[in-house]
Amino acid sequence: MIGLTVFLCAVLAAAPVGSPAPASDVNVLYAGSLVTPMEGPVAQALAHDTGLHFVGEGRGSKALANLIAGGLRTPDVFISADRTLVDGLAAKGLVESAVTFGGASMVLGWADASPHRQLFEDVAAGKASLVAALQTPGLRIARTDPALDPKGERTVRALRMMGLPDTLGTIYPEEDLLVRLETGQADAGFLYSTEAIARKLHDVPLPGAASLSGEITYTAVILKAAPHPEAARRFVDFITNGAGKPILEAAGITYLTR
Fold first, then answer.
1. What total number of domains does the chain contain?
2. Starting at the edge strand that comes first in sequence, how are the strands of the sheet with 25-31 ordered?
3. Among 13, 18, 114, 257, which residue carries the largest CB count within 10 Å?
4. Residues 21-51: pLDDT tens digits?
5. Residues ≥6 apart with Cβ < 8 Å to 226
């Protein structure tokens, strides 16, 4: 017994005083338009400043909301690009708290790899009409699925506002859209301003009301069934009031006055 006591005392004495607690995971499902800042600088700063380990999954907000509502995903936090999806989850009793913290707008984006780069640069310079440019024969336009992603549904409405066919373009998964542009597999794509800024793509705002400025907002939700509720609260505070805020501002989110 004496030997055991001596051994335990030695272990305790060797342990560093005030050593930090093990890092906690925070599971976040988020709108795919935020993949670049979330998986990069947000995750890194979160670990450095709070010790939290970011475990994220980015997809279309509708698809994620459906997974949560169906019990197929149980995240700590859901970040939606459509407040109505959050209201739907709240009506099912799944939401602990929600804060709408920032916004974006609709743009047409393209990369240096686009064979039609000069066409869109002329539009950006005011030398050509965006509506006319989008009707160029053979143009490969990328968009997301309106059934799975609010951006896809907003693209349909924006096309109608511009007097263009709402079937214009090829549908790609939310998580593939930017890669298609960056690799030249698509000439241009309908994006949120956040995506264009975060990935350093060229872009031009959609004209007038088609930009949907003021409608596109990001809402951070803590779920009632969050496996790590304290980590969830710390994460939401980090992106709404802490060091995550300037990171997301630099990625193109316009923070709302609250």
1. 2
2. 53-59, 25-31, 77-80, 217-223, 95-103, 254-255
3. 114
4. 345 999 999 999 999 999 999 999 999 999 9
5. 74, 75, 76, 77, 96, 232
pTM of the predicted model over 0.90: no
DSSP 246: H
Which range marks the domain in which residue 141 is found? 106-211
Q: Let me know how long the chain is.
A: 258
At 59, give phi and psi (nearest 5°): -150, -175
pLDDT in tens, 204-228: 999 999 999 989 999 999 999 999 9
Q: Kindly indicate the confidence band of residue 174, based on its pLDDT and cuts at 50, 70 and 90.
A: confident
196 and 151 part of one domain: yes
Q: What is the residue type of 209?
A: A
Tell whether 16 is covered by a domain: no
